[in-house]
């Protein structure tokens, strides 16, 4: 199942929400969620977590793009195929995982290079040959800005679910949403479910927002949350404000591991459960060929 997360303008928190969404996906022993940072304008995750891409040439978006050019079977050398037969690790079943690194906390991420030229080329290739993306049971793709006509927008058409993140306090974001909503809504013709995640405080009701956004539903309200955003960036500090300390204490009474006292994490968890409900795990659509995508 592919869940694409994108924006139309600005930086409303796509990478943060995509990361939190993958990290809070309902997991089973067979489900290893992967976050793919397929942002053609360049990635942030490696920098956030102090990862030096030169030390990890066999992982990341460029490595995924190179492997995507080859048919699935051809990406496995005879040696890896023999290993795979005896291998019970998740990457034996999910070739996508071979290009991922594991962040502290366990989330697997395919990080984009910071260089937009490199990242853009890789996204172009993956949008043309997305089979490896579908090899994950649950793949959350940070598409970055997906304005119509971009490689990011082409990636959206390969998704099962598309989440458009928008900050409606910004009048520019609101206008862009109004202008692009009909194209986004047309994704439904390709069997892509489309919904909105509205970040920050917003005085409008879900119904009012949907009305100006071609009836695209609001799936999530993502509150402004310094603690949650810092956790996602790998810069988490213990809660300082009394309100946050009380919320943490209350959440951990029921579940000592819970991070849901942080509003961003709680919103991501709710969104992951909603997306999980849309489609049974393992129900995958057939991959469309690039010509079909262009025609759509
Ligand atoms: N809900 C939130 N509350 C507080 N800060 C947030 C939230 N979401 C994101 N941020 C912060 O806002 C900044 C931008 O977030 P992020 O990189 O996730 O946005 P983006 O839409 O992916 O941006 P870009 O288009 O540059 O890739 C980051 O510093 C992040 O920590
Ligand atoms: Mg981003």
Structure characterization notes:
There is one protein chain. This protein is an alpha/beta fold and 296 residues long. It has 13 helices and eight strands. It is 40% helix and 14% strand. Mean pLDDT is 84; it is low at 73-87 and 287-296. An eight-stranded mixed beta sheet has the order 3-4-2-5-1-6-7-8, with helices on both faces. The chain starts with a strand and ends with a helix. Bound molecules: adenosine-5'-triphosphate and magnesium ion (MG).
Brief digest:
The chain is an alpha/beta fold. It is built from 13 helices and 8 strands.
Relevant terms:
Rossmann fold, disordered C terminus, binds magnesium ion, 296 residues, 13 helices, 8 strands, 14% strand, alpha/beta, binds adenosine-5'-triphosphate
| Structural shape | globular
Give the bound compounds.
adenosine-5'-triphosphate, magnesium ion
Q: Low-confidence spans: pLDDT under 50, at least 5 residues?
A: 73-87, 287-296
| Fold-level CATH name | Rossmann fold
Number of helices: 13
State the strand order across the main sheet. Answer: 3-4-2-5-1-6-7-8
| Biggest sheet descriptor | 8 strands, mixed
Q: Helicity range of the residues?
A: 40-55%
CATH top level class name: Alpha Beta
Structural class: alpha/beta
Number of domains: 1
Which range does the strand content fall in?
Answer: 5-15%
Distance between the termini: 20 Å
* CATH level-four homologous superfamily name: P-loop containing nucleotide triphosphate hydrolases
CATH architecture: 3-Layer(aba) Sandwich
Radius of gyration: 19 Å
């Amino acid at each position: 199942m592919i869940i694409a997360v994108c924006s139309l303008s600005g930086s409303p928190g796509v990478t943060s929400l995509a990361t939190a969404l993958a990290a809070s996906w309902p997991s089973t022993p067979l489900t290893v969620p992967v976050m793919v940072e397929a942002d053609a304008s360049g990635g942030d995750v490696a920098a956030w977590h102090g990862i030096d891409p030169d030390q990890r040439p066999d992982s990341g978006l460029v490595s995924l793009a190179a492997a995507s050019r080859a048919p699935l079977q051809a990406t496995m050398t005879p040696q890896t195929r023999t290993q795979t037969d005896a291998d019970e690790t998740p990457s034996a079943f999910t070739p996508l995982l071979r290009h991922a690194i594991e962040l502290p906390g366990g989330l697997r991420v395919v990080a984009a290079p910071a260089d937009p030229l490199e990242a853009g080329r890789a996204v172009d290739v993956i949008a043309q040959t997305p089979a490896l993306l579908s090899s994950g049971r649950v793949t959350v793709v940070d598409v970055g800005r997906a304005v119509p006509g971009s490689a990011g927008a082409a990636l959206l058409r390969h998704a099962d679910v598309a989440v458009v993140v928008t900050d409606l306090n910004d009048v520019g974001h609101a206008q862009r949403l109004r202008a692009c909503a009909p194209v986004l809504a047309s994704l439904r013709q390709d069997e892509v479910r489309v919904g909105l995640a509205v970040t920050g405080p917003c005085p409008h009701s879900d119904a009012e927002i949907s009305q100006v956004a071609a009836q695209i539903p609001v799936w999530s309200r993502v509150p402004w949350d310094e603690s949650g955003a810092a956790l996602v960036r790998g810069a988490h500090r213990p809660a300082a404000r009394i309100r946050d300390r009380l919320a943490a204490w209350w959440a951990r009474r029921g579940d000592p591991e819970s991070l849901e006292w942080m509003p961003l994490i709680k919103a991501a968890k709710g969104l992951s459960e909603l997306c999980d409900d849309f489609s049974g795990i393992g129900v995958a659509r057939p991959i469309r060929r690039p010509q079909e995508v262009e025609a759509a």
